[in-house]
Amino acid sequence: MEKDDLEVLAMYNEEHPRSIFYHLKTAYLITRSDIKTTIYPATIFAFSSALSGDLLTTNSTPNIVTLLLRLPSVLLWTWSNLWIFNLANQRLPNSVLEDSINKPWRAIPSGRITSTQARHLLLVSIPVVCLSSLYIGGREASAALMILTWVYNDLGAGDENFFVRHINNALGFVSFGAGASQVACGYPDHTLNQDAYWWLGVIAAVITCTIQFQDMEDQEGDRLRNRKTLPIVCGDDSTRWGSAAVILLFSLLVPAFWRMGTVGYCLPALLGAVIAGRTLFLKTLASDKQTFRLWCLWLTTLYCLPVVKHQNASL
């Protein structure tokens, strides 16, 4: 959609107020593509951490019912912080250009809101999210996410160097996991212990080395905005072979970190092998999208290893 068309649409929207359902759908579209990559995994990470007892938290006797009662707070914390990142990212001109190719259904390229309106929403949302984090927990993680959002979007850390992009993404993932976990643990009565931060470091290493699965499906739009992702810098084939190797490696190393038994290796290794095979032999856009979804599932299985370890130790 052209700039003049968006300005006309903005004037129309001001003169013809939309229903609450229209605005709710707009909010959903802004965060839609990251629900599977952020909200689901962060929530699962949070509950796995909380249920792992003294392996990762200061609460040695977690209660499943109490944790379920905290689920709305966990979802609120995760979604509101994701909302900040998505608004900051999608309002930028290069992002609008990229989304017009890769994700034309998003709120700005589809004409539901303008970049200016997204910026206004961002200015209002930041203090609201900060205040809510002070109340329900995860304030340090929320502050870290806002800094990482600024570095990634406004300073261009996501565009100019693929390694910096990977590090920034990894820190973002673990910040989401840490903040959601604090809420799930029942902050301020309980929180993560020191061992949890070693575990977060392992997850950061995993994501740093495998996040390129996210970029395989976006190569056309990334080339348009001159973004230096791994498949664009190193080539599609080289990235596929390297990605297949590292996901197989981490499918074994992460269960080894927790000293899992044979069963603990099975699901990560099986999913890792499927993903490795798909990325090498199924190279269409649709296949890459599905492979990335499987990567999200694989990462989630790693998130669950601590609670599996805790349950096995309790038997």
Outline the biggest β-sheet: none
Strand content: under 5%
* Regions with little confidence, pLDDT below 50 for 5+ residues: none
Overall pLDDT level: 90
Helical element count?
A: 16
Radius of gyration: 20 Å
Helix content: over 70%
For the secondary structure, the number of strands is 0
Number of structural domains: 1
> Order of SSEs, N→C?
HHHHHHHHHHHHHHHH
Shape descriptor reads: globular
Which structural category do the helix and sheet elements fall into? mainly alpha
Distance between the termini: 60 Å
What does it look like?
By secondary structure, this protein is mostly helical. The protein has one domain (3-314). The chain contains 16 helices and no strands. The protein has helices spanning 3-15, 20-31, 35-51, 64-69, 71-90, 93-102, 115-136, 139-153, 162-185, 194-210, 219-224, 230-234, 236-257, 262-281, 285-303, 305-314. α8 (139-153) runs antiparallel to α9 (162-185), α9 (162-185) runs antiparallel to α10 and α10 (194-210) runs antiparallel to α13 (236-257). The longest helix is centred in the middle third of the chain and has 24 residues, at 162-185. The relative contact order is 0.12.
